[in-house]
Each structure stands twice: as C-alpha cells, then as structure tokens.
Amino acid sequence: MIQIKKYIVLIFLLTFSALGQVMGQAFRISLLTADPGDELYSAFGHSAIRVLDKASGEDYVFNYGTFDFNTPNFYGKFASGKLDYMLSVSTFAAFVSDYDRQGRGIKEQVLDLNSEQTDYMLEFLQVNYQPERRFYRYDFFYDNCATRIRDAMDLVLGDKLIWKDEVKEADEKTFRNLIDEYVYTLTWADLGIDLALGAVIDVDATPLQEQFLPDYMFESFARAEIQGDGPTRPLVKETITIMEFPKVEKAMEAFNPYWIFWLVAIVFTLITFIGFKKKKLFIGFDLAFFGLLGLIGIVVTLLWFATEHSATKWNWNILWAFPGHLILIKGLWSKTLAPWVRKYLLFALIMADAAVVFWILGWQSFHPSIIPLLLVVILRTNYLYYNIGKYRLTSQ
Predict the structure, then answer these.
(1) Contact between residue 160 and residue 229 where contact means Cβ atoms under 8 Å apart
(2) Interval 370-385: pLDDT, tens
(3) Any bridge partners for residue 91, and if so which?
(4) In the chain, what is the straight-line distance between the N-terminal and C-terminal CA atoms, in Å?
(5) pTM of the predicted structure, to 2 decimals
(6) Residue 55 to residues 15, 90, 192, 218: CA-CA distances in angstroms?
C-alpha cells in the first residue's frame, strides 16, 4: 500500500510538472526593438516586451515608454523632472501599425525562457500593470523603457542570466558620446542637449549601463546566455525582422550652429578691430551677446538647482553662459561707468578661461560649436576691460 501511494504521488508530481511546462510553452515572450526616428523624441529608438499566447492567438505588447498627457501641470512636471512614465499595454497589431506609419523598422528577439521563467515574467508584467504600480519616475539614462526591461530580466533570471559583455578600453564611451551617436545630425537639438546636461554624463558607461539605449540592449541580449538550469543556452532563441525600411543617410542640417557661431565670432572680431582703430566700443553688440548668454545661464542654473533631473547637475556651461551677465548689461548701458563693471569683466574673462581648462582636462565635454562663442567672450571681456574707461564717451 505504501508503495502504491508513493507511485500515485510521483505520478501526480510528474503530471503537475508537465502541465506547468505546457502552460509555460503556451506563451512566447520577446524583446521588441524599434529603430530610431527622425524627430528628437524618437531619435534613440524604443524597446518593448511582446507576449504571444500561442493557444488563443492573443498578442500584446507591454510598453514602459508611455505617459499621460492629461497629467496635471504636465509641462511643469516634465521640465522639473517630476513626470511619471507608465507601463501600458496595447495589441501587437496596433504597435506595428504605429511604427509602420512612422517608417521605423522593428526587430524581435524571441527569448529562450523555460516554463518557470516564462510564468515568472508573465506574473511580473501582470503585477506591474496594476494601477498602483504601473507608474514610475522616468530617468533618461537610468530608468527608461529599455532599462526597465533589462531589470525585469535580471529579476526573473537572477544569477542564471550572464551578460557576455567584454569591456575593451578602445570601446569605452561616455554617456554623452552614446547620445551624440544618435543626434549629431540634429545639430540644434544636439547643442541643446549638451547645454542642458552636466558633467555627470561625461563618465564612461559600463556595458550594462549602455543598455539605456535600445540598440545597445538589442546587442547585449543577442550576446547573453542562460546558465545553471540545464545546458547553457543563448538568451535569444530566434531573431526576427518584423518590419524593415531602407536606411537613409542623415545629413547635417544646413542651418546649423557651427557656421552660424563662427560667423558671430568673425563679426565680433571685426567690430573689435574697427573699434580699436576708431577708439569706440560698439557696446550694442555686447548688450545683445551677453544678454543672450545670461538667459541661457538662467536655464542652466534652473536645470541644475531647481529640477530633479539627475543628468543636469554639475553643468559647467555656467562658466561662460552665466546668469550674472544680465547684470553686466545694466552696467554697460549706464552712462556713468560703475567701478564694479571692470571687475565683473575680469571675472567673466576668468570664468570663460576656466571653461576652456575644464574642457581640456576632460571634466566636461562642451558642444564643439561653442568654441567661437568662448572666443568671443574672451575677446570682448579683454577689450572692454582695458578700454571701457578710455573710450566710454565716444562709444555711443
């Protein structure tokens, strides 16, 4: 009788295990990677998770890259880094249709998860889609649509997931280098990003950190392995091209800051030379120039000190685009020369020189197009410092 009971229990366990494997095999989980788009918001690509129920044909996409436009004070929260993104669910057909309209290709990597791992992933997605858990505080570099999926894989597979990423010194890239790869042809957007983001992104990203970019995560998934639950196997069982569009070589915008800023530098060089010959200051040009730099400095300061964006801290663009330049306008505009004006000009000169030193030492990488602007700051503060007292009455 005892032997019969043992056989019954054994048969039950084997049957239950087989049913679990059948349930796990009924679902196929994949990583979807969408190509970058032409606009800034889509320039870095996108990642999502596909869940296909092979039995019923139900086909859904879990997407961590969505947000609610109806959020109260939407733009204020976005600017201050307090906007929450959320996990949303759509049909696979709707997902493909959306990217088809945008002309962006989609690649699928079918994951080789066993039944237990598949069930765990399904449970993870269902729990995280609950209203009280679907929202999260977005961070472009450390908590976005791609990193959420990477972290989910780490949780589901634990130490069985082995990222086969070798660190090679020649391949090391900073966070800024990585995003520059995607926006260098969008010159004004590239400039705006470099003005807004601080020295905290001028550090080498580890291979795991590089996965904040969907293309890099796609490559990491392709190299990864699952070990410890049987024979070692690749994480990705199959790679499928869902949709593909011809690659179009992107050209740099004709109207770009590179030649425009050099033109500005040439204009200031000419007026400085003419001013020196005619003993004039041409302060009107300085009022416009330093006024613009002061406004940029206010934005840099607010992003650094008044927001929760992690990447806008320690931004040394403030050395040349300084809010105090707006105060200089009052001193330059006044008919009487206040003693502090020359002191401030010397201060502004030292600050601009410090920006050059910070750049050379690699403490922060500035956008290349600002080189002529730095030269203008150095040139005009030098010229005004030594001549504003002598030429003041003839400068109008």
Answers:
(1) yes
(2) 999 999 999 999 999 9
(3) 60
(4) 113
(5) 0.87
(6) 20, 19, 49, 27
